Amino acid sequence: MAKPALGKGLGELLQETSPNKPSVTSETSTCAPRMSAGMNTLVQRPTANPPSGQTECLPRVVRGALLAGDAALTVGAVLFLQARPADGINLTLAVGAVLLGAWLGWLALVGGEA
Predict the structure, then answer these.
(1) Nearest to residue 26, comparing CAs of 13, 44, 51?
(2) Distance separating alpha carbons of residues 24 and 18, to the nearest angstrom
């Protein structure tokens, strides 16, 4: 019986620890989201050096403004739906506001580097 293509040599790859193979090292920037070594191996981010004058991706003021915008859009969407009947258009507007707020919050947490 033939082995499937994905299973060929998998045991050898997992058990082989020869010193001739290069080890995978993960280099992450200070403003990138933290990932495990396995995720870094899967993602294989390019290791570009940041410009010399740039020490962090987003200043704290910008991160705070993005998080405040996230909170304002989410609270506004809830208040909007409480004031009006939840028909199709109003519900679509509220969901759009929540999604925009979620995107702003994600940008604040990630630090601007995607």
Answers:
(1) 44
(2) 13
Q: pLDDT tens digits, residue range 7-17? A: 666 666 666 65
Count of C-beta atoms within a 10 Å radius of residue 4: 7
* Count of other CB atoms within 10 angstroms of residue 70: 21
From CA 67, how far away is CA 107, in angstroms rounded? Answer: 9
DSSP letter for 114, please.
-
DSSP-derived letter for residue 59 is -
User: What six digits make up the tokens of 54?
Assistant: 């740039």
Whether the full predicted model's pTM is greater than 0.70, yes or no, is: no
* Cβ 66 vs Cβ 107: under 8 Å: yes
User: Would the CA dihedral through 61, 66, 72, 74 be positive or negative?
Assistant: negative
Residue written as token pair 């258009």? 89
Whats the size of the chain, residue-wise?
114
